Each structure stands twice: as structure tokens, then as C-alpha cells.
Amino acid sequence: MIPVYVINLARSPERKAWMENELGREGLDAIFVPAVDGRRFGARCDSAAKADPARPLISRAETALTLSHRRVWRRLLASGAAHAAILEDDIHLGRGFRQTLDLDWTQWAFDAVKLETLFHVVWLERRGRPAGERRLHRLGAEHLASAAYLISRAGARKMLAATRRLDEPLDHTLFGHRLIGSGAFLALQLVPAIAVQDAVRPNVAKRSELASTLHEDDRKQLAAKAKREKPKGSLRLRREAARLGEQMRRWITLAPTMRRRRVPWE
Predict the structure, then answer these.
(1) Residues 34-46: pLDDT tens digits?
(2) What is the CATH number assigned to the segment(s) 4-262?
């Protein structure tokens, strides 16, 4: 069994209890790793973004999340294990999670395997390969969110190098187009996905309504980031043209071996 790490804020014991229950149903024990708390950052953490308007604005909450995952990647490398499952503390697990972890993951080459879905349309390798009762498909472009994934030792090293500058949200590095599209990071998608975050679980009645860990300051920072990144006028037109051009390039490059589809969850 590969190790399971769960990232949890010390001030969110109800989320830890939730994950203990989810994993307990599968007969699994996890290593709970204390998350970095962005509320404890000093004002100087924002100074770099303020000093350089061209630098992407990363909120304290986003910075803390990346630092938390970096903490787990280091623990994996120190452990000697070949792979690890990394979960955030608001996940619903699908059927057969333990059986999925029991698979021989050394038979597949990958840097990371995305276990969750946002139910977005994403680029996936057409054929894939069996993985127990599910299938593994190579991701051709982004499928964001970082709440449930497997990572290899090689993948952990790559992510530690890629996140050193803390210049973009974690999921944009881990499962964004930049590294996946260039071939620098080999990401697979488990289909159907076996995990989903509480806030996007399709059956609203079965959500646990876990309390948000975002502070009001986090919300203000994220709102400021969205406002800063929203283009206007000619810049907006240029960005839209660039987006359409990128979509066309992806179709030309990816369509022969991949298709666009939504990833279900069960």
C-alpha cells in the first residue's frame, strides 16, 4: 500500500474528522500533515507583488497551499516510498479507493495521476489503459485542482523545482497546460475519477458543507487578484485572440491522439 498523506489545517479539526471517517470506511490510515497557515504570514509576504506590478499576484492562501504540498513532497522523498497519494481535507472518496491504491503503480510511468475531477471538458488520450476497474488516460492539457492525486518520486522532484518561485497557483503548475503541454510533466487522469471535492460534488444533498478555511483577508486578496488579472480594452481583445489561437493549436496538435470529454466520478 502506498502512503496516504492528508493536508489539514490545525484550526480545522472538523475537516480532519471528515477525512478520518472517509478513509476509515476504506480501512485506511493516513499521515496527517499540518498545512501551512496563510493567516500567520506577515505583511512582508506581499511586498514582492507590490514592488513588481508585472509579477503575478498570488494570495496568501494560494502561497500557503503550495508550501503545504511542498512539505508533503519532501516527506515522500525522505520516506523512500516510490509513490504517495496526496489528499486535501475536503474530499469525497469514490468506490474502491483502497483497491485502487493497492494496484501495482510501478507498472505505469507517470509524474502524477489526477484522482479527482471538476467535471470540466478536458483533453484525454483516446485509448488509455486498464487500472483495475478504471482506466488511465494521459492528460494533454490542463485539468485544474490539486485536492487528490498520486505523485511519483520523480514528479515530486519536478514539482519542488517548478514551485520554487511561488509565482502561480499550485494547480496551475501541477495540472496546468504549461508543463503538461510541453511534455515536461507526465500527468495521467484516472477515469472515472475516484475523488471529488465537497464543493463540487454533483449530489448537493450529500455534501458535508465543510467550513471554508479562507479568512476575509484571503477573500479580499483573491478578489483583488481577479480584478488585477481581468483585462480591459485592447488588452482584452489581444488576450481573447491569443486564447482562440491557443485553442486552434491544441486542436491541431492533440486531436489525432486525444479527445475532449468530461471526467465522471464514482
Answers:
(1) 999 988 876 555 5
(2) 3.90.550
